[in-house]
Recover the amino acids of this structure.
């Protein structure tokens, strides 16, 4: 640590991404990435002319990309803010609306980045425990005066609240900000986007990293009232005006407009997920059905830690959390059917169950 | 403005980028972009496989890109921090080391983003006036206990301080941070990078947006002691861990390694700049010789505002600053020789000087 680092950062606990070992080739199912390529239209967009256009700054208002995203929900681009992945969008939202010392809340088990941000930037945060069935207790968030951050569906549990439950939280107090992270929304549950026309204390964050198969492109977006979006733009223009590259904009715009391809990939993943969850249940595993591109379960006859380690020894990376309430679970990203067949065969081998049909 | 925007942001003045009108085709020489394409190796790097690899997150430590940048200066990647353009790198540096209320200083005439950041994030900033010849008075920065931010060469004046002058500032007080923005350094003056092995209160910021012709790719970097870099990484990992796209990394790595191409483009721009400055002097214009990819001058027989407006009417965008001490100047980016010939012919026509040889 240098002499100059501000005291408030000295005890921060930076976000820990899923491991990326490179001692051998792994089937990487630990970070909810995609086994399907991006839309072919993304490749079409990367023409020689487009690559060469990096010689100029792009429009820092990103109107073309914001219009393309708006068209998905029949919204004006004025309701859309774009950033370098959902994390940056979340950070700009929190930076704009949550001051050091302000009270926020989120579940004890959720996407760890919220806590990372809260600790680092000095928010007064409270974590409400998930219920025994690992679902969110809506009443916790209705009956608090704290600003709310919720992943819906939640991660790593994969469970979702209904739009009417979210509406209860949002409408309980219009002077309280509610941030809903819908990173996984396209895989099953209903989006809260229609609520933004009625509530000005709601920000919804989505991403191209999951259903659009493009985590490496770093494109996330927020949907909210035009006033909220204007505020976030104001903060962005004082931190990094030109936050997205011309290549991300070109690729992102092409991907946003190709809803057919997104639906196709999402359909395959949902089908594979349901089949894979069925197969895990046949092994006696305790499966928490998700509405995402991953499965979440407690294995039987082997600890979660052992199963994770043995899958890694077999060249398959999955996510294990060495922490209270989570250390009996494994989270596995849904890849292609062939990849998940390989995972199943390997799990059966590890736990000593015959792979014969 | 929404009910929720934090008070401290309500009076911020977001950075104003150069205008980007699209009512017609313009020769855009107002934002110090590049008329030369990026290295052909950048195009080579954008293979189908590379574009398709957006399906996965990149290594958020960006070791490959940092190593490539380090190799330019024979430094370890541990001395390199990468971000989404120099603005993000500057913001992460200021966020890591400058708290609300802390004292910083920079010139009255310089890259406006420093003031934007200082106002928005509540730094106690002081602007030392440039001398009458628009150069920086080194003593101002030696004799203050404030942290220092300097663009070297300065923008829009284009003048540079020597490494020994910068060393005087840095060495005057080791408990004071000095941030040197070397965005334009490759066009002439000597870099301060060698100083980082001796001073741990120095951060140098550079960019791929100027000499590497890639403003649209959004790649900037900081060079500093490994402790300073570790601190900045810590803050980045709590704000946006995966800040660069896989495409920017691939393109940036290819560009960093192609120093020959960079030298070729820089050589052409310096040659064209010197010739263009000579030609402006022949028109009686008062030229402040720069060490950058732009020229900075006071026209004669026409006001700077009028010249800017008439160039725009002729399809050429240049930069005019409607503010005290700057409103008699025009800044023009150096494009290709043919483009600058067109600018000269147009200027001669506007001021009524014959274009005959």
């Amino acid at each position: 640590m240098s002499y100059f680092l501000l005291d408030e950062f000295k005890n921060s606990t930076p976000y820990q991404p899923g491991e990326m070992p490179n001692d051998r080739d792994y089937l990487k199912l630990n970070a909810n990435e995609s086994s399907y390529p991006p839309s072919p239209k993304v490749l079409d967009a990367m023409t020689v002319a487009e690559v060469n256009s990096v010689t100029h700054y792009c429009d820092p208002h990103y109107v073309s990309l914001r219009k393309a995203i708006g068209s998905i929900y029949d919204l004006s681009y004025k309701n859309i803010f774009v950033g370098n992945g959902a994390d940056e969008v979340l950070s700009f939202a929190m930076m704009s609306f949550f001051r050091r010392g302000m009270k926020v809340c989120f579940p004890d088990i959720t996407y760890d980045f919220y806590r990372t941000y809260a600790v680092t930037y000095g928010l007064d945060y409270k974590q409400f425990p998930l219920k025994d069935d690992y679902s969110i207790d809506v009443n916790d968030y209705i009956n608090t005066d704290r600003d709310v951050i919720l992943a819906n569906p939640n991660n790593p549990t994969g469970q979702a609240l209904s739009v009417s439950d979210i509406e209860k939280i949002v409408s309980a107090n219009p002077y309280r900000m509610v941030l809903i992270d819908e990173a996984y929304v396209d895989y099953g549950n209903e989006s809260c986007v229609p609520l933004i026309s009625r509530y000005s204390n709601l920000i919804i964050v989505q991403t191209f990293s999951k259903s659009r198969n493009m985590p490496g492109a770093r494109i996330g977006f927020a949907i909210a009232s035009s006033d909220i979006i204007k505020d976030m733009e104001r903060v962005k223009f004082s931190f990094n005006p030109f936050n997205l590259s011309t290549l991300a904009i070109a690729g992102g715009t092409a991907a946003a407009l190709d809803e057919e391809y997104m639906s196709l990939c999402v359909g395959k993943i949902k089908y594979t997920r349901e089949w894979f969850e069925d197969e895990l249940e046949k092994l006696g595993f305790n499966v928490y059905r998700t509405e995402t591109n991953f499965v979440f379960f407690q294995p039987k006859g082997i600890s979660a830690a052992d199963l994770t380690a043995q899958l890694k020894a077999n060249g398959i990376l999955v996510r294990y959390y060495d922490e209270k309430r989570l250390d009996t679970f494994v989270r596995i990203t849904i890849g292609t059917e062939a990849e998940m067949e390989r995972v199943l065969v390997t799990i059966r081998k590890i736990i000593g169950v015959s792979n014969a049909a």
About this structure: Residues 5 and 264 of chain A are 48 Å apart (CA to CA). The mean pLDDT of chain A is 95. The first strand of chain A starts at residue 27 and ends at 28. Chain A has two domains: 7-36+260-351, 41-257.
